[in-house]
Amino acid sequence: MSSDNKNQADFGQILATRHDNGADFWATPDGRLGIEKPISTLTALMIISELNVPRDHEALQGAAELVLKAIRADGRVRIAPKGAIYPCHTAHGVAGLCRNGYASHPRVQDALNYLLADRYDDGGWRCNKFIYGHGPETDASNPNVTLLALDAFRLAGFHAGAARIVDLDRAVETLLDHWTVKMPVGPCHYGIGKLFMQVEYPFLRYNLFYYVYVLSFYEKARQDKRFSEALVALQQKLDSQGRMIVERPNRKLRGLTICQKGKPSEAATARYQEIIKNMELD
Question: Domain of life, per the record (predicted)?
Answer without folding.
Answer: Bacteria
